Protein: Probable dual-specificity RNA methyltransferase RlmN
Amino acid sequence: MAEKINLKGLSLKNIEEIFENWNIERFRAKQVMNWIYKKGIEDFNQMTDLSKELRNFLKANACTAKIEILDKRISKNRDTVKFLFRLEDNNVIEAVLMKHLYGNSVCVSTQVGCKMGCKFCASTIGGFIRNLHSWEILDQVFQIRNSLKDVHIANIVIMGSGEPLDNYNEVLKFIRLANSPDIFNISFRRISLSTCGLVPEIRKLALEQLPITLSVSLHAPNDELRNRLMLINKRYPIDSLIKACKYYFEMTGRRITFEYALIKGINDSFENGRELCDLLKGLQCHVNLIPINMVEERGFVKPSAKRIYEFKRIIESNGIQTTIRKEKGSDIGGACGQLRNKFLDKKEGYKDLWRT
Ligand SMILES: C[S@@+](CC[C@H](N)C(=O)[O-])C[C@H]1O[C@@H](n2cnc3c(N)ncnc32)[C@H](O)[C@@H]1O
Ligand code: SF4
Structure:
């Protein structure tokens, strides 16, 4: 028997073409998409404005694949919900819903694990397993929205496990799908993509001219320090990264956000702050300071609140807009990849959910 076609993660146009090939009226595609994305219904049986005959045909020839929610953890102050998902091949990923005053955001993963090897990151500890398909990235948003019915999702941040630009085509497909009025209708301006700095792909993304926000994980103001923290810097040193960021701004008019995770005694000195200002001089940007989320396996610790504010003042005094990221969900495995690692280590009751 021919394999069923997964309608999840296909655009309206794609589904219309498939239906046309099956001699089904084109407008039925829009009806099916409304059921899936507007009403959250994935079961063809429940699509009551389709004839019984059509529902049976779709059941036999199509499917709406899904990722399964394995666990859902709500932070004590209820502003963060972490989701652990099982994929069809039994791999496990995580995504997070964060409630902000300016609207709720979902942070999605783009890969199972990561191959980039940043020293402070939990996502890379088990290595890289595989890229996610665009529908698997989309389904993280879909399942979260379905599971928290009263929560409106206003923003998507592509900042979960994995390096999105290392999975370029599927991530771009996902961005376009999430933006589509037939799917989530989230404006490009409300989508942020974070990268560790894959220079050729940043340049390629600039040419797409999508007005999304690009966040660059910088974390160090010079090559010597960045080489120690992020292996990618050996391939694409800071100078080439900053040039690519300037190019991105020229092509899109979108200001870059630089992420700088402050690690006590490593990158938080006054000298580091001044060097960072020199590096970013003249660039249209914003700096987001992140108190490092402790990852036991790595032994990095965040600086004191006083030092974090002092660092912020140095950057701001040079006319660069700077924010300190509010720590969210630290009681439920805050850093990306930490919950998945607990699952892989069969900790905290996850042993029973284990399947190979
Ligand atoms: C997990 S990464 C995923 C996106 C992309 N791979 C990247 O590196 O930008 C998202 C952000 O989390 C940051 N990050 C990773 N581990 C962290 C930790 N332990 N504490 C704070 N931020 C961390 C990364 O540097 C990056 O800015
Ligand atoms: S910070 Fe990003 S690129 Fe680096 S290991 Fe983590 S997920 Fe991968």
Notes: The radius of gyration is 21 Å.
